[in-house]
Design brief:
about 450 residues, mainly beta, 6-stranded antiparallel β-sheet
Length: about 450
């Protein structure tokens, strides 16, 4: 007959397990959810750090949050670190999380949601306990569609507690199975949990019954696609170790199984539990650009997500020139509004508005230009760095147009941001003596 602990000890220990699992598995089992209130950086993300060339948003605190893509950004570099798995009670480490680097296509002003899972913990309460898997680390679209996931490490399996005993077994790195626990013919070691894949959760590790009836439990398979990779089994005071849990399909790492236990002084050996399998990483098909880099097994600590958005800039310099076309029949002045792109990036669009003299009107407007009382507004399309675009219109002259005829052009809008306002305005003034005599600069 197998030795067992007194009922009050078993109940007390189970309560301790349940209390720990309620806190530590909150992120492990959470699905990818959309958050309701977008912000520049909300929840687990710090406030944006803006430099002359980039906007960086760092998300390191455990939990869920959201951020708003900066204006003019069309892509961002994203680095995710999956959370490491928790160590066993005897100090054997959990698995490492993955590092994922990708170029993510984004829409200015769109909301991205983030989930940042914590490093796994050691289940307290008994020396033979293992560690939990690292929590989910992911970026999702506003509707909850997963875009990027860094797989987390599996928890270490607990060591066997008896005389002699066996040390715990390491948890699997992201994308790798957990190690099988050590044992012998009496106190067998539990099998390690399988690694999660992009299409399925990892298999549960097998239990080592070592001829015992009933035998200890095998580990559970990891959930798919986004839930946690499993939680530790209760150690039921068998000599043999329990199987580790499988990693999630993509995301969390599985938990390590408990080690075998024997309370009889000088009694039989205790086998170690199997380590939890690591979760796998996801790079969605909507992520374009440089091939994304996924490196499993590089982060043993705090999960994190860092966004780096380029701040594109293009300086529009405005120039206004004029040329007289005189004669008794139809005298007029031609004004040309030129938008110069002095870089450093390409201009996607620009608008220049010209103010006309009091009482003047504009005719012969080119495509993209409109007029209202006292103004002409011209819209420009793409302007590559180092090039210019010009649009001309006419201001008819009459006997009342004598004197100075000035037209001022001002950049009123452009994308991306214009870093230099000093060259946004220019004026051309013609001096009209008569309808057959005028000078322009």
């Amino acid at each position: 007959m197998l030795p067992t602990a007194p009922p009050h000890l078993r109940i007390s220990r189970m309560r301790r397990h349940l209390g720990v699992l309620a806190g530590s598995s909150a992120l492990l089992g959470g699905a990818l959810v959309a958050l309701a209130s977008p912000a520049s950086a909300d929840g687990v993300c710090a406030a944006p750090v803006v430099t002359d060339t980039t906007t960086t948003i760092t998300c390191t605190a455990a939990g869920t949050g959201s951020l708003t893509v900066p204006a003019d950004a069309t892509a961002g570099q994203v680095t995710l670190l999956g959370a490491g798995g928790g160590p066993s009670a005897d100090g054997v480490p959990g698995g490492k999380g993955a590092r994922v680097e990708a170029t993510l296509a984004v829409t200015p002003g769109a909301t991205l949601n983030v989930i940042v899972g914590s490093q796994g913990v050691t289940v307290p309460g008994y020396p033979g306990d293992g560690g939990t898997g690292g929590g989910l680390v992911a970026v999702t679209a506003s509707d909850g569609t997963p875009l990027l996931t860094a797989g987390s490490g599996g928890g270490a399996g607990g060591g066997g507690i008896a005389t002699p005993s066996f040390p715990g077994s390491p948890g699997g790195d992201s994308g790798s199975p957990g190690s099988a626990g050590a044992g012998d013919s009496v106190g067998g070691g539990g099998g390690g949990g399988g690694a999660g894949t992009a299409t399925a959760g990892g298999a549960g590790g097998t239990a080592a019954s070592a001829g015992q009836t009933p035998g200890p439990s095998a580990g559970n398979p990891g959930s798919w696609p986004n839930a946690g990779g499993g939680v530790p089994s209760f150690n039921i005071y068998y000599n043999a170790g329990l199987g580790g849990y499988g990693g999630a399909g993509y995301g969390s790492g599985g938990a390590g199984g408990g080690g075998g236990v024997n309370f009889i002084p000088g009694g039989q050996t205790g086998g170690a539990g199997g380590g939890g399998g690591g979760g796998s990483s996801l790079v969605s098909g909507t992520v374009p650009g440089s091939p994304s880099t996924v490196t499993d097994g590089v982060n043993a600590g705090d999960g994190s997500i860092v966004f780096t958005f380029a701040n594109p800039k293009a300086d529009i310099g405005v120039d206004v020139t004029a040329q007289p076309h005189l004669g008794i029949l139809v005298p007029y002045l031609t004004y040309t509004l030129t938008a110069h792109n002095t870089g450093p990036d390409a201009v996607a669009s620009a608008t220049v508005t010209a103010s006309l003299p009091t009482g003047a009107s504009a005719t012969d407007l080119p495509t993209g230009c409109t007029t209202s009382t006292g103004t002409v507004t011209c819209a420009y399309g793409a302007i590559p760095n180092g090039t210019s675009a010009a649009k001309s219109f006419r201001v008819p002259l009459s006997l009342l147009s004598l004197g100075h005829v000035s037209v001022t052009g001002t950049r009123t809008a452009s994308a991306p941001n214009d870093p230099n306002a000093a060259n946004d305005t220019a004026t051309a003034t013609c001096t009209v003596v008569s309808v057959i005599l005028a000078t322009c600069p």
